[in-house]
């Protein structure tokens, strides 16, 4: 039984993440925990020394949240339900990340699924602040579902890496489980600003990945491009990529791909889900 935590703010982006998760794990036995966090800042006032009582918190935040969560469950009930899916609702009054961490530990969460909508304006950030905080500050594998993502059974998964970091089997095992679950192919992608040969460490890490994925449909791809984001955009379009896997500790690629301000023509971040792995 897989335990999945889905934070929700009751937006359509959050609903999109719920739908995506239900479809992704259609054939898998899952406990889905729907969590709404009422942040502590919600009741902060300018009054020095003001601290809301438990009754105020309950009436102002917790009870309305429970009503909204019931509406989410009712909406879920209109979907084709699976006997192997169970749903639980959680409401909390806390700092957002502290609440996520608490429930990850208490509920033995295997995966967080979170919806996101990037910032607007001339410079778009790939993901919103809550999703960014989760994938950088919570040690749990996280599936980030962007605003325009619609579920299709993933057939092609991209795994960008610079081969500079060794990935343990424990870190990569969630990828194998997904490959087994959905029978997808994984495409390991290396992008460099100039044509050069891999050093000895990179060669060893590449050989390890070749061995690790040897029992699954996989391939390695090498692109030369000064712009990593543009190269990924090209690869996503040319290979019809359905999911991008990232490793949080590989800071070079991770930060460039997930947190770099983007121009309008880079669209993979609004359409393609990201699976972010943690040790």
Sequence-ordered SSE layout with sheet pairings:
Blueprint (H helix, E strand, L loop, with lengths): L1 E6 L4 H13 L5 E10 L14 H24 L7 E10 L1 H11 L4 E6 L12 H9 L4 E5 L9 E5 L8 H14 L2 E8 L7 H13 L5 E7 L3 H12 L3 E5 L3 H9 L8 H4 L2 E4 L2
Parallel strand pairs: 1-2, 1-4, 2-3, 4-5, 6-7, 6-9, 7-8, 9-10
Antiparallel strand pairs: 5-10
Describe the model.
It is a single chain. The chain is built from 9 helices and 10 strands. It has 279 residues and is of the alpha/beta class. The chain folds into 2 domains: 2-146, Rossmann fold (3-Layer(aba) Sandwich); 156-260, HUPs (Rossmann fold, 3-Layer(aba) Sandwich). Strands 3-2-1-4-5-10-9-6-7-8 form a 10-stranded mixed β-sheet, with helices on both faces. The radius of gyration is 20 Å and the shape is elongated. The two termini are 21 Å apart.
Helix tally equals: 9
Total strand segments: 10
SSE ordering = EHEHEHEHEEHEHEHEHHE
Second CATH tier, the architecture of the largest domain: 3-Layer(aba) Sandwich
Strand order, largest beta sheet: 3-2-1-4-5-10-9-6-7-8
Binned strand content: 15-25%
Using the alpha-carbon principal axes, give the shape.
elongated
Poorly predicted spans? 120-126
Percent helix range? 25-40%
Count of folded domains: 2
Q: What's the rounded overall pLDDT mean? A: 85
């Amino acid at each position: 039984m897989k335990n999945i935590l889905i934070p929700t703010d009751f937006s359509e982006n959050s609903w999109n993440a719920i739908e995506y998760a239900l479809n992704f794990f259609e054939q898998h036995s899952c406990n889905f925990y729907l969590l709404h966090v009422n942040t502590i800042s919600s009741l902060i006032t300018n009054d020095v020394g003001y601290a809301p009582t438990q009754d105020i918190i309950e009436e102002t935040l917790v009870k309305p949240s429970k009503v909204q969560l019931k509406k989410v469950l009712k909406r879920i009930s209109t979907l084709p339900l699976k006997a192997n899916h169970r749903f639980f609702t959680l409401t909390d009054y806390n700092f957002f990340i502290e609440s996520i961490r608490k429930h990850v530990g208490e509920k033995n969460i295997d995966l967080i699924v979170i919806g996101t909508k990037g910032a607007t304006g001339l410079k778009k950030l790939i993901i919103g602040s809550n999703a960014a905080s989760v994938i950088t500050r919570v040690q749990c594998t996280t599936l980030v579902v962007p605003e325009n993502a619609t579920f299709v059974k993933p057939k092609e998964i991209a795994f960008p890496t610079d081969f500079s970091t060794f990935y343990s089997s424990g870190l990569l095992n969630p990828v194998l489980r997904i490959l087994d679950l959905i029978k997808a192919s994984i495409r390991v992608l290396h992008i460099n600003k100039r044509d050069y040969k891999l050093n000895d460490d990179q060669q060893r890490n590449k050989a390890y990945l070749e061995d690790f994925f040897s029992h699954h449909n996989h391939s390695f791809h090498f692109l030369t491009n000064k712009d990593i984001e543009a190269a990924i955009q090209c690869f996503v379009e040319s290979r019809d990529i359905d999911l991008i896997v990232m490793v949080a500790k590989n800071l070079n690629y991770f930060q460039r791909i997930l947190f770099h301000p983007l121009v309008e023509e880079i669209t993979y971040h609004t359409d393609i889900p990201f699976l972010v792995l943690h040790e």
